[in-house]
Amino acid sequence: MIEDEISLLDKISDYYGNTILKELKSKKKEIQKVFNILIEKEAKKFNLVSENSVHNSRYVQVISRVKKKNSFREKLIRRNIGSKIINNLKLTEQNFDRSKAKISNEVENLDDVIGLRLVCDLNKDCPGALEMISNNLGFLKEHKISFKTGEIESQPQKMKNGLSIYRLKGVFDDRIGFELQIKSKIDEAWGELDHFIFYKDYSFFPSKTSVQQTMNNVGKLLDKIEDLLYDLRRSKDDYNKNLKNLLFTQELSEAYSSKIKDILGFSYQVEKLAPTLRFFIENYYPTFNIKDEENSEMSFKFLKYETSNENYKYYRNRSIELKLIEAIYINVWECETKQKLTSENYKKFSSHLCEALLENIKEEILQADTLSDYDQDLIENNFNLLIKFNSNENPWISGRLFSEFSKIRREVLDFISENFESEMEDEILGEDEIEQIYSIFLLCQFDANLEEFLDNLTERNYTQQVIIKLKEKYSNSISLNIIEKKINVFSLQILNHLAI
What we know:
Elements: H1 2-42, E1 49-51, E2 56-58, E3 60-66, H2 69-78, H3 81-89, H4 100-108, E4 114-120, H5 126-134, H6 137-142, E5 145-147, E6 157-158, E7 164-172, E8 176-184, H7 185-199, H8 208-264, H9 274-284, H10 310-316, H11 320-337, H12 346-368, H13 376-388, H14 399-419, H15 421-425, H16 431-445, H17 450-455, H18 463-475, H19 482-498
Helix pairs in contact: 1-2, 1-4, 7-8, 9-11, 12-14, 14-16, 14-19, 16-19, 18-19
Pfam family, one: RelA_SpoT
Protein name: RelA/SpoT domain-containing protein
InterPro entries: NT_sf, RelA_SpoT
């Protein structure tokens, strides 16, 4: 029986190698051509192009492959695909030739025989490449390319090792399946090496587990190299950005420093206000010239008005920085909208202001963060958690603390994936508990009401064990960086409360 099935699988593989493969290679070229056109047309809009006085270069390119005959045969057997084809088509030696058209359809529908990769220079470019695809689904559809429902929204996906991957299942011409991955050049090279060493090596050798752990650690080191390369690439952009910030801060100081001093009775560092106000102006009123406000008056009448967000009001009334930001932004808003702020329209204005403040926080975090999966929704959820548990540090204007926390979060998640891999695979340490663990560190970072949160933990299977092991790791380290020192202090703080 098994001999008959293997014989049929060999015939399918031969038919694939002699006939189907040629057709798939042709379709692969068509698909790749569409993505090359898309990149040529749209890459600049999504910050995937570098421009200088000499030449322009793209941060993303398309590579593709179709599985070779031997790899295809192995796929048929290893993933039971061949058995399904045989059973679905009721294949026999006698009807094989008559079933070739149906076999072609079955193979063409497989979602990873054709593989494409958008290879980006750095991991930081991958979200932009995904956004480029997401914003051009109409263009792709015109060229007979579509993605299965939910594919775009579910990216990036979590792998068993805790790392993330961008992997989308697509269809060309309503029948040809393909898989599209988005990854950096370093991840591409690393994946090829890891694949070569382990993917098709099913043999046992005593050091295999330790070798795999070493490979995983090297992979994490490569992530840190990615961060350094990104910093180097950003250095020129940062210089230009910092120059613009300096010019804006100077104009802000000239327009408002003396007014603020008259109100407070002492000089105030307007540079603390500049990044937020610059974000507001550039994103909402880009034609506004702050020099026009040199003769305007600052008013704080809005403090008496009813706001649309009581949480914002709570923090604003305890922050001179937020009060000043709002007062200056009111000047901008009045100048640009040709309206006067009143108690009647203040709720609408304050709603806009809160949205703008949150968008500023998100932008600041995403620019500083190297975690592709720390997206806007997750940031907003973290923000709301801080509001709920009364953080002492002001979350409305603490982008720096959020950015620093993203590195703490990454360190904690890496530690969990490295030390609790089997528990994650068995799903006894689930995503909800992992999210709960890093939320505890978020509350520590913002000096929120940690006690209330810990007293109401919904998942306790491994939370304490993870924090104990984190404390043990960093307590025994000779030299700690800033992030590791914070994790060490926070772990002790958490364990003291839990009386471990």
